Amino acid sequence: MQFKNEKAIYLQITDFVMEKILRSEWLADQKIPSVRDFGGELEVNPNTVMRAYDILQQQDILYNKRGLGFFVSPEAKSSIMHIRKKQFINIELPKFFDTITLLGISMDDINRLYQQKQH
Fold first, then answer.
1. Distance of CA 99 to the CA centre of its chain
2. What SS3 state is found at 70?
3. What percent helix, strand, coil does the chain show, rounded to 5?
4. Which fold does the domain 9-75 belong to in CATH?
5. Which residue from 46, 81, 80, 88 is spatially nearest to 60, judged by alpha carbons?
6. Domain edges within the chain
7. Tens-of-pLDDT digits for all 119 residues of the chain?
8. How many Cα atoms are found within 13 Å in the side-chain-facing hemisphere of 56?
9. Which CATH fold would you assign to the domain 77-118?
10. What CA–CA distance (Å, rounded) separates 86 from 91?
């Protein structure tokens, strides 16, 4: 994983975990890598991974079985979809609309490009 400077590493790890769940690489009730193992894999301090796991646990994406580790919650995908849709609508979409307005791109152009991508 390549980390970027514009966002805290623990938040990038939360995004990475969410992607794995959305792509069905990590499934509901599946045990995920331990904090120590994942930290080693990502080459970050285990405390950074723990911070990410804590956030994901607060969002009902992960749950902890004491002594066994962290697992993907059964409602993880729907929780992630809700979080991601809200972020997209509130943050990304306004930027998108500003950009297409600035560039004079119409919604017809967008729709045509979207239809082409679907085929």
1. 24
2. strand
3. 65, 10, 30
4. Arc Repressor Mutant, subunit A (1.10.10)
5. 80
6. 9-75, 77-118
7. 788 888 999 999 999 999 999 999 999 999 999 999 999 999 999 999 999 999 999 999 999 999 999 999 999 999 999 999 999 999 999 999 999 999 999 999 999 999 998 87
8. 32
9. Helix Hairpins (1.10.287)
10. 8
